[in-house]
C-alpha cells in the first residue's frame, strides 16, 4: 500500500523551464532509537527516489548543551549535483529562502562536503522556525545561484510508519514539528 503511494507520486510533471522538480519530503520528524549520540538528539526527514530508496535529506540536530546552537542541515548528495556549486569542501555562505510562497529571507549557512548547515541563533530563530515548520520552501545558494525546492507530501507523511517498518528501520519515534521542537527543548533543559 505505502509503496503504491510513493510509486504513483509526481516525478516528472513539470515542463522544461518551469523550475526545479521539488524534492518531496515527509512532514514528520523521525528519531531512530539506534541513533545514540552522546550529547545530541537527531530528528530526520526523508525523501524518496525512483528506485524506492528513502534518503535522509533534512536533519534537525539538537545538542544537549543549551550553550550550543540547534541547527538543521540539508543533505544535498542525493538531491542534485552539488560539487560545482561551491569552490571548496567547506565554505560559509548566505542562502535565500522562500517559505510557503509568502515569506522570503536570508539565512547564513555553512557548506561542508555535501551538506548545508543553518544555525538557530537569537538573530535567526524566527526564520529558522519558519523553515522547519514549512509545507514548502525553496532555497537559493552558491556561486551559481542554485535553486532547490523542498515540499512536504502528505501521502508520504501518512505512509511513513509503514515504509519504515517495511525497511526494517528498527524502533523509531515519529513526531510532528511541534512535538520535535518541544522534545528538543526538554532534552536541552529549556522551558
TrEMBL record:
<protein>
    <submittedName>
        <fullName>Uncharacterized protein</fullName>
    </submittedName>
</protein>
